[in-house]
Design brief:
The structure is a homodimer of 190-residue chains. Chain A contains nine helices and no strands. With 190 residues, chain A is mostly helical. At the A-B interface, helix 6, helix 7, helix 8 and helix 9 of A face helix 6, helix 7, helix 8 and helix 9 of B. Chain A binds a DNA duplex (30 and 30 nucleotides) through residues 1-6, 28-30, 38-42, 44-46, 49-50.
Chain lengths: 190, 190
DNA sequence: CAATAAATTGAATGTTTGTTCAAAAAATAA
DNA sequence: TTATTTTTTGAACAAACATTCAATTTATTG
């Protein structure tokens, strides 16, 4: 059997960027052919159809996000300090040119009610929340860890929307400090 | 001159519902003709094009939301109690079948970076934040009112995303209570 | 009642959409 | 090398897309 000749990761990286920025519906196959350099037949052989390519793009993004998150917690600073760092890095991200919010969040909101993909994305978001819960449960009771994780997710979703339209980094950080007052923000003063 | 014969408000109401649920890109003119009962020519005469109809739908939704919000504050309970009620009503909304998040939020995230509509929607969101700030400044200093309003907006955005995929009302309420601990939630215990 | 102006109609426009497929090329296996 | 399998190619497809417009209907004006 002949070897796959295009690099799947490279193609997925480019497709993900386009889907992320433009959205599922507004991204045409034509545009995907151009950005990936593949011809129709290759894409359809490798991914089935547009939805298949999109699903793999979601996987690509989500798995990378989850790996990244786990790595940050494994750097063995305090859990809460790490959470502060993560949130502040999200704020920083949101201030950059071409900021596209979070691919999972955007896709979740765009997808139709009866699409299986919506559930699929939900489970990735639940996995992420689970990581926060797990980490916090080293410091708090299970109930408290769950509540705090829910509060963190609310803030993450919030800032990924807020950061999309407002340019005031400082305002977001103030909002985070107020809402997540139990985190060690003082370590980040200067 | 002949009178406009279709009821503009009715048409906008129906168009808004469709755009809100399905999104801008995925909503076809065909579907809009069907849902409004109008023929192509009528829509194009009255609204110019798809984007024109969408913009008026945004206006329709935003103005109604803003009026609604102001009314709630004019009922003259305490400001903070009113805010709790608003947030809890959003949570309740999110638990209902066919929940579509917030039309402004969804559209904001869907629209392309260089679309004028994105700024347009941003200014509506800023207006809403301004109302919270204004109300809170009757109780707090300007700086504190702004910070609290930002925190409220973060939570509203957060719950309108969180509520889209999670079915646990209780978890969201817990998150709100923790993050917005300075609000009089105790009035809502029973 | 005409005369005039505006709104409605629905067929038709030319693109763009996602997808297919037979032929060609490339890679592996014998 | 030859035979076999897999990938790539790019033209072609029907369906759906947003939009237009001349003809018709409806409403207002004089």
């Amino acid at each position: 059997m002949a070897k796959v000749q295009f690099d799947r990761q490279t193609v997925l990286d480019k497709a993900t960027s386009l889907f992320w920025r433009v959205g599922y519906s507004a991204t045409s196959m034509q545009a995907l052919f151009e950005v990936t350099g593949l011809k129709p037949g290759s894409v359809y052989l490798a991914f089935g159809n547009k939805e298949g390519l999109f699903k793999e793009s979601i996987d690509f993004y989500a798995q990378s996000s989850i790996t990244n998150l786990k790595n940050k917690f494994n750097q063995k600073q305090g859990v809460e300090q790490t959470i502060c760092e993560i949130l502040l890095s999200f704020v920083e991200e949101s201030a950059q040119a071409g900021y596209c919010s979070c691919f999972l969040l955007k896709s979740q909101l765009e997808l139709d009610e009866q699409s299986d993909l919506r559930e699929y994305i939900s489970s990735y978001l639940a996995t992420i929340e689970g990581i926060y819960t797990e980490q916090l449960s080293t410091l708090y009771s299970e109930d408290e860890a769950k509540q705090k994780a829910a509060s963190i997710m609310l803030h993450i979703f919030g800032l990924r929307v807020y950061g999309y339209h407002s340019n005031s980094e400082a305002q977001i950080v103030n909002g985070l400090r107020l809402g997540l007052h139990w985190l060690p923000w003082s370590n980040f003063d200067h």
